[in-house]
Structure formats: C-alpha cells, structure tokens
Write a structure and sequence with these properties.
Blueprint lengths: L8 E2 L8 E2 L21 H11 L6 E11 L2 E11 L5 E9 L2 E2 L3 E5 L4 E5 L4 E4 L12 H10 L3 E9 L4 E8 L9 E7 L5 E7 L5 E12 L17
Antiparallel strand pairs: 1-2, 3-4, 3-14, 4-5, 5-6, 5-7, 7-8, 8-9, 10-11, 11-12, 12-13, 13-14
C-alpha cells in the first residue's frame, strides 16, 4: 500500500468531532548512537534513524496528544499496536478533565480498516474514502516525514532527572498551514521520542504529543487483531 501523507487526522464520520495526530519513531532493533566527545550533529542523528527504518517490526505505544485550535484545547489518549505481520489495532479516547469517553477501536488487517460499533457490538468496514484519515501507518509515515524533512537541526542537549535528551527542530518536506515546524525531544541514548510540538504558519503551537509507553517487539496476543466483539484493553 502506498505511503500516506503524514497529516493532522480528522475523523468526523467516526464519532470524533476534532483532530487527532498520532506520532512516533518506534523502531525494533533500534540503532544507538555511539558516544562522541563533541556530540553528534543533526546529520549524524538523521543517518542513525535512516539505518533503523529497515528494522521496523512490531510495537506497542501509548501517547497523549493535545490539539489547540480556534481557542479550544482537545486531548486524546491513544494506544497503538502493530504486529510483525503488519496488522494494527488502535484504541483512542477523548480526555475531558478527569473523565474520558468510551474508547474508539479500529483494526487494520492489511487490506481494510474496521471500526468497532458498540451499537452493533461488532466491527464494520470503514468506507474507502475515509481510510486516509486512519493512523494505521502513522508511525512509519512519521519516520519518513523526519527522514525526508527539508531541514533538520540539533538545537540543544537537555538533562532531565533521569535521562538526557536531544532537542531537534525539523521543517517538513511536505508542510501545510497547520504543520510548518516541529520540535522533537529524543531520548539521548535510544533516540526514542519523548515529546513532540507542532507549529503552524504563524508559529503558533497547534499540538503537543507526549509518549508514555514505547515497547519494541513485544509478544502481542493474536486476539488483539481479530475482528470480533471485544472490550477495549
């Protein structure tokens, strides 16, 4: 299947009133940067990431994403599983203060995407015209958006209480008015993403995504990807 354009996702026909952007840099067999006295350059970081693209396999991630538009803030939590055979499961909830909506569950079986309907207590196929809005390949698409960025700069190295991070700035090769510049915090040793900020044409913050869990090559249950009624995990 052709690689889809990395974009802010809008799912008006799938119970969501607003956008969700799901991002990551998860790679199985992740390549580590070797220690260098002067530290790596942005080009060296990008090269290490490019070497890891061929090693993508299964993963599980959880992240929270908050969108800012028209004076409104909307927050979502997303769990995304990918099997080593290319199957996907996404569970997404909207966060409303201390409460959250029921999970929206989508499964992609390699050919088609299916949405779980609580009313039907079953999955049903999503119309082909709506499939481009689904984040089935968003991890890989995001990787390509970084690898194919028009420019990439290492702004700084930051030290936290437990880890150190690279702060990287990229200008996408395929920008739109809502996504012109991105700031990405990468864990220094593994280069796994920690935080992402997206800025629009006016340099206004449009989205913040924080990654909570990243598991590479986990042992995933086959039932996760089966098209049968099941309660969200």
């Amino acid at each position: 299947m052709a690689r889809r354009q990395f974009m802010v996702l809008r799912l008006p026909a799938l119970f969501l009133p607003a956008a969700l952007l799901a991002l990551s840099l998860c790679f199985s067999g992740w390549y580590y940067l070797r220690s260098q006295p002067a530290g790596p350059t942005a080009a060296q970081i990008r090269e290490q990431l490019q070497e890891g693209i061929e090693s993508i396999a299964g993963y599980y991630i959880r992240f929270k994403s908050t969108l800012f538009y028209d004076g409104i803030n909307e927050a979502y939590r997303v769990d995304l599983w990918k099997s080593d055979s290319g199957l996907y499961r996404m569970e997404m909830v909207r966060l409303e203060g201390d409460a959250e909506t029921a999970a929206q569950v989508v499964i992609f079986d390699g050919d088609s995407a299916y949405l779980y309907s609580p009313d039907l207590d079953d999955f049903y196929p999503i119309h082909e015209a709506e499939e481009h809005t689904l984040p089935s390949f968003i991890l890989e698409d995001f990787w390509h958006s970084v690898a194919d960025a028009e420019s990439m700069a290492l702004l700084s190295e930051e030290r936290g209480s437990r880890h150190s991070y690279y702060l990287v700035e990229i200008y996408p090769g395929d920008p739109d008015r809502h996504r012109v510049r991105e700031l990405i915090w990468l864990e220094k040793e593994s280069l796994l993403p920690v935080r992402l900020e997206v800025y629009d044409i006016y340099n206004s913050l449009t989205q913040v995504t924080s990654f909570e869990i990243i598991q590479l090559n986990p042992d995933l249950e086959a039932a996760l990807f089966q098209l049968k009624p099941a309660s969200p995990r």
